[in-house]
Amino acid sequence: MSIYKRKDTWWIQFTAPDGTRIQRSAGTKIKQEAQELHDRLKADAWKTKNLGVKPIRTWQEAVIKWLIEQGHKRSIETDKFHLRWLDEILGNKTLNQIDKMMLERITEAKKAEGSSNATANRILSLVRAILNRAKNEWEWIDAVPNFRFLPEPNERIRWLTHEEASKLLNELPSHLEAMAIFALATGLREANVTGLKWSQVDLRRECAWVDAAQAKAKKPISVPLNTDAMAVLRSQQGQHNTFVFTFEGGPIKKAGGKAWKKALKRTEIEDFRWHDLRHTWASWHVQAGTPLNVLQELGGWASYDMVLRYAHLSSEHLKVHAANSKLVVTKILHLEKIA
Where are the transmembrane segments (predicted)? Predict the structure, then answer.
């Protein structure tokens, strides 16, 4: 059987001249289109075997190979999230069909959803990374289309006031509320919160830790637990043997999903991502007087430059120096009165 129907979609199945069994979705509900694709793939397989022509690879094949090779990445769940979205546009395409016009279509589709330029660029970066690997390492294609990323503003620091944070927490479902409170109490990144295991927590010593393999800077992070963080952990005890935070009995892959966005909409909080909880935590620390070098260590940042982004939120350390110009100003005013 060369083509067959599975539910509403036609599928292709044949054995290539080299003995490889080919089985894949035709990505269509029309039998004639499926038959044409089958015939073309079979002809391509013959050319590959007898003429040495490169086989035509599909986007789906590239995605599967990418996920296998990149399974160790800390951000693999983010990749999966973006790839699921991309499937509607690229799911039935071959790699050779992905050109500049199609990449522009991806950008337009993402922008039409109200996404930022930065979000659209992250998706384009993922597509480019997969295509580059298909060209340079897998040797599946000969060229990668050129395209431009959208302009992005300078990195913004978006943070919430305590009042805004309370409103947001009240709108979140209980499992997300616990995670958000923990993020605001520790400054941990989303992946470090969702992936936190009880083996990384010492309730007696009131501390937790992130292993180097899980840390963005590739260095272990020691996490002191304040009263808010401890309260959250105690509330999670007994829910799962391995993971601290769960939903319906299983680990949570992504926190900033639909429920998160709906809560933001109800509280009328705009332009706020889950990662901005980390910015909020850092901003609160600086405003409360935490030295930047201490904040760097607490947050596990690789360089001091990363925490300088928050320096403008507090001027307490500058007050003692601000008085240095007082005498000069007083003298000027005195001279003006004499004149």
Answer: none
The CA distances from residue 5 to 15, 90, 263, in Å, are 18, 21, 42
> Can you tell me the distance from the alpha carbon of 129 to that of 66, in angstroms, rounded to the nearest whole number?
9
Structure tokens at 48: 């590959």
> Which listed residue (110, 278, 279, 285) is catalytic?
278
- CA dihedral angle for residue 226, residue 229, residue 234, residue 239, rounded to 10 degrees: -160
Q: What is the pLDDT of residue 155?
A: 64
275 is catalytic: yes
Q: Which of 38, 82, 189, 279 is catalytic?
A: 189
Mean pLDDT per block of 10 residues along the chain (339 residues) reads 86 87 85 89 82 81 92 82 93 92 93 86 94 93 90 78 95 96 95 94 95 82 95 95 93 90 95 93 91 90 81 65 56 57
Spot the catalytic one: 133, 253, 275, 309.
275
Active site residue 7: no
